[in-house]
Design goal:
Mean pLDDT: 91
Low-confidence stretches: 814-818
Radius of gyration: 37 Å
Strand order of the largest sheet: 3-4-2-1-7-9-10-8
Largest sheet: 8 strands, mixed
Structural class: alpha/beta
Strand content: 15-25%
Shape: elongated
Length: 818
């Protein structure tokens, strides 16, 4: 014989009842079945609401009408589903149950309270009606008998949270005939105490009924049918990438049930574990799915962690004070008082100093716990040997569970690292002596983010990047294009990169699940507001993000000033914007300190060499103990392009116009020709070497003479630019007479920075550099007299975007376990 249990979601409608009928009929052809049924979805909650309203003197007719309507709708739909289906017996049974319910509710309203035995009698009506409905459906074609749980299941005397006495119940079933019928039906959630009074097994106790029945019948297996394909390694309603667990041991399932796995009732596993009866979790709507097997066999050994669970609506109670230390029996008194108040404890932790004991309980039981503890420690509280009992509310418990965790080093470390990476504060920690679980208490608001972070760390082979792009101009748009083109390659490398936000000074689009890179422009056009700093920080808090990166492709000083706030909110920063690194030395140092403390990357390789890995290589040299002696370089791809055209005889104004048309220059070419852009780059290099220089310390020779009128719009400036062509031509002719070429060179030597036009000979490393190339010559202790030279294309949107893209991918270095 096999025992099947169908939950309330599997019986919510007449169509659901038909699905269950099909499963029962199919399986009954193989062997006799005992089927345990819950009440239809929401019925027990509705009954509970009636009782609460009646006990407070409020009108209970609305939930009573809802209760009636649910069953009448099911009856009506059954009549439509089945030919010649007689619903009159169902209506008579419903009327009988409603008569009893109304009588009880009238009494409750008069008393202004509901005795527990009456409470239990009302709560089980839904299960009883489910069985009656199913028996009418099945008896049309099958032989059906109903098992009265009050005659067979013996439980403790607690009317609302009874525990089944399995030994006594098994004796009751000794004379039970399994062969007279192929199908037996039993209402779940219901049993009787030793006096024969009806009791309930706690809310959602039908699973407990089913596994206890399986033990009593020595069943071949127990099958719990619900609305999901089985047990998942994390709540699929909270983490979309949750994975089905094919197999769990009894011990793992028990840990999961105690720590919040809603698909398993905490009392469910004990009965079948004791008798080694396999249990399957199956999906009523997808009966062909494999489901999850719970047995004495351990789970997949390749998985060090089997599942992550969460228990919400918890509060942490802290008992502390100077009288705690060394006082024998304090723990016994605390937990004795809590036990006498009938309060269940989910987690316990004690400080090593013995100054405090903390434990987690359901938030709904805090008032009872406070009364129990204040009564127990009345004298100690008055004499101030104990501090006032403290409660921290709005908490949840997140637990790692798995048989294979035992004696596996690094599990707890990776657990806490994943929480730290998600910027989640840990309030308390506990580990079971079996080493099968490790739990932490965190804020309830961080629960979903914690589950996602832990699932990513332990189960997701992919690496994740969530990009929040600020600035969709030339570089930003090209970056989006490159990311879109690389999606197939990134997926092949198990990199999940999505764009969660695109923003400019006027508009933004924001989506936690990612924006379509084929239609982002249309999405952006729908908005009429820019993305504010507060919205960005709020998204870091509200969204479930693993590796969020703000990519700043603007030249905004306001956004640059916000980097510290963004890193503290959990974002990495990637940017070609130089303004943050060339701000005051105090801000420069504060950025690095914030990056260190927040464990967030601040990446800006494109600040200096566009697509060339200048900063990364310089940092690696210095980290390896090298010391920079001297530096010379062409740091502007646009100026390099312009000077290459000058070599070929093009005038300065024409060369600048060509560079501008190709988008090599800044939107305002004066930023390039003034030397300010190159000055910022050499300042960044100098600061990387440890020099505390400011922008004012850089000696800059502008390509624009001091007496040249640089005012007006960009178009006006470009019209005036031919006025200085002759001066530049004269310098070019002189350099050519000396067999040299003019180059715009940034240099660092003797702690001094300079940007100037230099005539370089053919043996100089920068002599051949032109056409938009950047070239950097580092003379160091390790690289002399021949310098380390980095050379490559340094102008244009594509190479800059590629450099930003490379920096984005470098953020992956901190997100996975080593």
């Amino acid at each position: 014989m096999r025992v099947l249990k169908f939950g309330g979601s599997s019986l919510a409608t007449a169509h659901k009842f038909k699905q269950v009928e099909n499963i029962i009929k199919h399986l009954s052809e193989e062997s006799p079945l005992a089927v345990v049924l819950s009440a239809p979805y929401k019925i027990t909650d509705t009954l509970d609401e009636m009782i609460t309203l009646a006990a407070t003197g409020a009108d209970y007719h609305k939930p009573l009408n809802i209760f009636t309507s649910i069953f009448k709708t099911i009856f009506k739909e059954l009549f439509q589903l089945y030919d010649e289906f007689d619903i009159s017996p169902l209506e008579k049974q419903l009327l009988k149950e409603l008569t009893d319910i109304r009588q009880n509710l009238t009494g409750i309203a008069l008393l202004k309270q509901c005795p527990d035995n009456i409470y239990a009698q009302i709560l089980v009506v839904g299960e009883r009606l489910s069985v009656y409905v199913m028996s009418q459906i099945l008896s049309r074609n099958s032989s059906v008998s109903i098992i009265d749980p009050c005659q067979y299941l013996v439980a403790s005397s607690h009317y609302l949270e009874a525990n089944i006495d399995l030994k006594a119940s098994i004796q009751k079933f000794e004379n039970f005939s399994k062969d007279s019928n192929r199908i037996f039906l039993m209402p779940g959630f219901t049993a009787a105490n030793k006096s024969g009074e009806l009791v309930t097994l706690g809310r959602n106790g039908s699973d407990y009924s089913a596994t206890s029945l399986a033990a009593c019948l020595n069943a071949e297996n127990c099958q719990i049918w619900t609305d999901v394909n089985g047990v998942y390694n994390v709540d699929p309603s909270l983490v979309k990438d949750a994975q089905l667990i094919k197999q769990l041991s009894y011990e793992e399932a028990m840990e999961l049930s105690y720590f919040g796995a809603t698909i398993l009732h905490p009392k469910t596993i004990g009965s079948i574990a004791q008798h080694k009866i396999p249990c399957y979790i199956k999906n009523t709507s997808n009966p062909q799915a494999e489901g999850t097997l719970i047995s004495q066999v351990n789970s997949d050994k390749s998985q060090r962690v089997s599942a992550i669970s969460s228990l919400s609506n918890m509060s942490l109670c802290n008992v502390s004070g100077p009288g705690m230390k060394g006082l024998v029996g304090m723990a016994s008194r605390i937990f004795g008082a809590i036990s006498r108040a009938d309060i269940s404890i989910s987690l316990i932790t004690q400080s090593s100093s013995e100054y405090s004991i903390s434990f987690c309980i359901s938030s709904s039981q805090c008032k009872d716990a406070l009364v129990a503890l204040e009564n127990e420690f009345e004298l100690e509280l008055v004499s101030e040997l104990l501090d006032p009992v403290e409660f921290i509310h709005q908490l949840c418990i997140v637990s790692l569970i798995g048989d294979n965790m035992k004696k596996q080093p690094g599990i707890a470390a990776n657990f806490f690292q994943s929480l730290a990476h998600a910027s989640i504060n840990i309030i308390a920690i506990a580990q079971g002596s079996s080493e099968r679980s490790v739990s932490t208490v965190i804020s309830k608001n961080s629960c979903t983010k914690a589950l996602a972070a832990c699932h990513y760390r332990f189960f997701d082979p992919r690496q994740h990047i969530e990009i929040f792009l600020i600035g969709n101009g030339n570089v930003g748009s090209e970056l989006l294009n490159q990311i879109n083109q690389q999606q197939e390659y990134l997926n092949s490398r198990h990199i999940n990169l999505k764009i969660c936000a695109i923003s400019n000074s006027r508009q933004h689009c924001l989506n936690e699940t990612g924006l379509s890179l084929n239609h982002w422009k249309q999405e952006l056009q729908k908005s009429s507001q820019s993305l504010t700093l507060d919205q960005l920080i709020k998204s870091a808090h509200d969204f479930t993000l693993i590796n969020p990166v703000v990519v700043d492709c603007t030249s905004s000083s306001v956004i640059a000033k916000s980097y510290i706030d963004l890193m503290q909110a959990g974002f990495h920063i990637v940017t070609p914007n130089k303004l943050a690194n060339t701000d005051s030395i105090e801000f420069y140092q504060a950025l690095r300190l914030c990056s260190l403390n927040s464990k967030r990357r601040f990446l800006y390789d494109t600040n200096v060499g566009a697509g060339l890995p200048v900063i990364e290589n310089l940092q690696n040299l210095l980290s390896a103990g090298d010391k920079l002696i001297r530096f010379q370089g062409i740091l502007s791809g646009s100026i390099s392009f312009i000077f290459g055209l000058l070599d070929d005889g093009t005038s300065l104004s024409d060369a600048t116009q060509i560079a501008k048309d190709k988008c090599f220059t800044e939107p305002d070419p004066r930023d390039d020709l003034s030397g300010a852009d190159v000055a910022r780059k050499i300042l960044i290099i100098a600061r990387e070497t440890g020099l505390a220089l400011s922008f004012e310390d850089i000696e800059v020779e502008s390509l624009l003479p001091e007496d040249f009128d640089k005012s007006g719009s960009v178009d006006e400036f470009m019209q005036k630019l031919p006025q200085i062509n002759e001066q530049m031509e004269q310098r070019l002719k002189q350099a050519q007479l000396d067999n040299k070429r003019l180059r715009y060179v940034a240099s660092l030597e003797n702690n001094q920075c300079k940007v100037s036009i230099e005539a370089v000979a053919s043996d100089h490393p920068l002599y051949e550099v032109k056409g938009g190339e950047n070239a950097l010559a580092f003379y160091s202790q390790y690289y002399q007299p021949i310098p380390l030279v980095l050379r490559g294309y340094g102008a244009g949107v594509s190479v800059t975007a590629a450099g930003v893209f490379a920096d984005i991918l470098r953020t992956l270095g901190l997100t996975k376990e080593v």
